[in-house]
Amino acid sequence: MNEELEVSAAGAGKIMLVGIGPGSVDHMTQRARAAIAEADVVIGYVTYIKLVADLIEGKEIIRKSMTEELDRAVSALEAARAGKKVALISSGDAGVYGMAGPTYEVLFQAGWTPDDPVAVEIIPGASALNSCAALVGAPLTHDFCAISLSDLLTPWPTIARRLDAVAMADFVVALYNPKSGRRTRQILEAQRLFLRHRRPDTPVAIVKSAYRRRENIVFTTLDSMAEADIGMLSTVLIGNSNTFVRHGLMVTPRGYANKYDMEEGGATREGERAGRSLSTGLLGWLETLQAEHAAGDSIDTLAARHRLPADYIRDTLAEPVEIEMAAAEEGEA
């Protein structure tokens, strides 16, 4: 990697990290299309270059393979140092398993700072989890996270710990890079870890090539998901304990039914107040915890019941609830 790249006499150029979304031009942002239009050079993985073929006629094109991310970033910096505007494209969003991270690493190693003549702009796009969710319903309406099953750069124990933690914590989870020709066991291990904490009939949606020519959607369940056709172009969406599938749509409730009676026109349930935390929210839970402890339940018993660390329960019990309640009541007044 050349750390002494010089700015050309024509002046420095610009690197635009462009998220092109799921792949169809209809789902690209206006800014993404404009950035590609104004670029002198377009750099990207060969498949992504094909997705924007209609927008890059007459431009200098640099195609790279799947494992040449750092080379893409180096090429972008070299072109920008030569005074060119560069569109370095990523599918989805450039900052979500995309080229933004590797590019900044290359820039920093080359001595680049935000005051450098070479300007850098990140242009966001819809990531795979957004695109796939839109096709299957509303699975991400509550807390969710994304985990890549690719162990090319991340140790498997790290990935496994993350899978186990989010499965236990009841997140809706989007699995990126779930399987490839050589990586076939990772999805099986992920399934095994999730089944430690989730029901076998937990809804799962598998979306392949969202908004592209070979788009394919499969609804299945956690205990059967590994039997489905899954590849590198697939995103696997695993629901939480409340996610359901109805009329071919996967939905994760936000929790309104906990506070409002949906069958009674949205009337507030007994013990709840509109616009306020649930009765089982933090303050309500603190009161319950104090009462359970006062009744003789040990810290270890409470930790197991609420599936929380014992030291957290101990520290929480040491905090006076009265101060929290007084502050809440003052705020409401």
Provide an overview of this structure:
- With 333 residues, this protein is α/β, with parallel strands linked by helices.
- It contains twelve helices and 15 strands.
- It has helices at 30-38, 46-51, 69-81, 100-109, 128-136, 156-168, 186-195, 256-259, 282-294, 299-306, 310-318, 321-332, and strands spanning 14-19, 41-45, 60-64, 85-90, 119-123, 137-138, 144-148, 172-176, 203-208, 216-221, 234-238, 244-246, 249-251, 260-261, 267-268.
- The termini are far apart.
- 32% of the residues are buried.
Silhouette: elongated
Given the structure, what is the number of helices?
12
Quaternary form: single chain
Spatial separation of the terminal alpha carbons: 62 Å
Q: What structural category do the secondary elements indicate?
A: alpha/beta
Q: Note the main sheet.
A: 5 strands, parallel
Average pLDDT over all residues: 90
Q: Helices and strands, in N-to-C order?
A: EHEHEHEHEHEEHEHEEEEEHEEHHHH
> What strand order characterises the main sheet?
3-2-4-1-5
Low-confidence segments, given as residue ranges, are: 1-9
Strand tally: 15
Radius of gyration: 25 Å
Strand content: 15-25%
Helical amount: 25-40%
